[in-house]
Amino acid sequence: EKGRVEPAAPAANRPHPLPAGNHSNRTEEAPSKMTQSVLVQVGQCGNQVGCRFWDLVLREHANVNKKGIYDEALSNFFRNVDTRSTNGDDINLSKGTIRSLKARAVLIDMEEGVVNELLQGPLRDVFDSKQLITDVSGSGNNWAVGHKQYGCQYRDQILDVFRKTAEH
Question: What pLDDT does residue 143 have?
Answer without folding.
Answer: 77
